Amino acid sequence: MKSVNFEFLREANEPLANLGGLAEAVLHIDPGSSLTRLRNFAEELTKVIYQEELLPRMLQSSFYELMKSPVFTSVSHEGTDGVFTADDVGELITVLRPFLKQEGAHEQQSSYTE
User: Fold this and answer.
1) Range of the domain at 47
2) What is the rounded distance in angstroms from the CA atom of residue 16 to the CA atom of residue 97?
3) Helices 86-100 and 31-52 meet at what angle, rounded to 10?
């Protein structure tokens, strides 16, 4: 599904581009479904970061556990546009925090506490 905001991802990661495109497509029809798709997008993006950065993780970790893990929050990556620092990850976590409180469509309630 073509997207306005996520199409740049298609070449590198088609499933992420599709999730973003689907969230866009249903935004004005079903905002709740759009949020669910964006939550799925955030979950998949987090897994991609773990994979690309070779971060250790338990395979059955919940989205919340992955986002709160010290190995994730301390990641630092120097990219072509500058430096992606731990502060950037902290800001991302702040933005995604409301979604962390929602249970994923395919995830069971986590017993992990802050």
Assistant:
1) 7-100
2) 20
3) 140
Domain count, the chain: 1
- Model confidence band, residue 23 (pLDDT cutoffs 50, 70, 90): very high
Question: Is the entire prediction scored with pTM above 0.70?
Answer: no
Q: Is residue 81 part of a domain?
A: yes
Q: Which residues contact 89 (CB under 8 A, 6 or more apart)?
A: 72, 73, 74, 75
**Token pair 């669910």: residue:** 36
> How far is Cα 24 from Cα 68, in angstroms, rounded to an integer?
27
